[in-house]
Request: fold
Amino acid sequence: MNIIRMSGGLGNQMFQYALYMKLRSMGKEVKFDDINEYRHDNARPIMLSVFGIDIPRASWDEINKFIDGSMDFTKRLRRGLFGRKIIEYVEEGFYDPKVLSFDDMYLRGGFQSDKYFAGIEEEIRNAYRFPNLETMHLPDKLYQVTSECMEQIENTMSVSIHMRRSDSREDEELYEGICTEKYYEGAVQFIQERYPEAVFYIFSNEPKWVKSWVDNLIQSQIKEDMEPWEIQALQQRFVMVEANTEYTGYLDMQLMTKCKHNIISNSTFSWWGAWLNENQDKIVIAPDKWKNNVESDDIYTAGMVLINEKGRVNRTVKKDEK
Reply:
């Protein structure tokens, strides 16, 4: 039996469950360790239930067979004398084909590549279908705000922008200088050149900073001969989506999937928002680095437009690269 150690927020959990589905399609027995990363008070919630998914959970005894964590006296004594005997494999890089080779292993990693579920993409899409808002039993105010936003998204040339600031993450040096203001400005310009009527729906964990950025961007696009109504129309093309918390963030992802195009950050959350977008003509813009000093090509999907920290287009990912 393989055990996948679940970790992170919804986007990470979705990658880990996608690996589970791939391993199961290969005839392997797989369960999850949802204890070690989620037993602390400040742990992020496990959110896969929004898709109606009930993960197969490994028991503590099953987990301990791999991580040698039993509190039995004799085993604690042995660990004290000889050290811990751990049977685990830690993923190397964004895609590590060795992960798919095990039949009896404790697996740790992010598994952040569509290569892990190559050949079962349709099954993944079916697993990650959001229920209708009407069936979610949301509070009235949240339902009203979300349904109105979804209607606007479906009836405009909608583009999602996910802005996750690096200074709110651990290991800041891995993310610093990637999703810069210039990156987002270049991404917006790329879309506007192709779709002047585009309306940008902005999702962020730091709305105060984003509002300042939007104000500056709008000011830079205002021309001297613009009429007041033209300025107002420009302002209305940038919409902040602010209704959700950590526990209802899945609604943001659902709204992202409904947009015509997506500008993502180096975040698994917006990666999935773009991947689940079923628009055949979608443009997906991503930063040309996912982590500093880490080879990241395996996380990109065919057709993604990669823009660097200076706002310049680097390249478009081709099919034969995947």
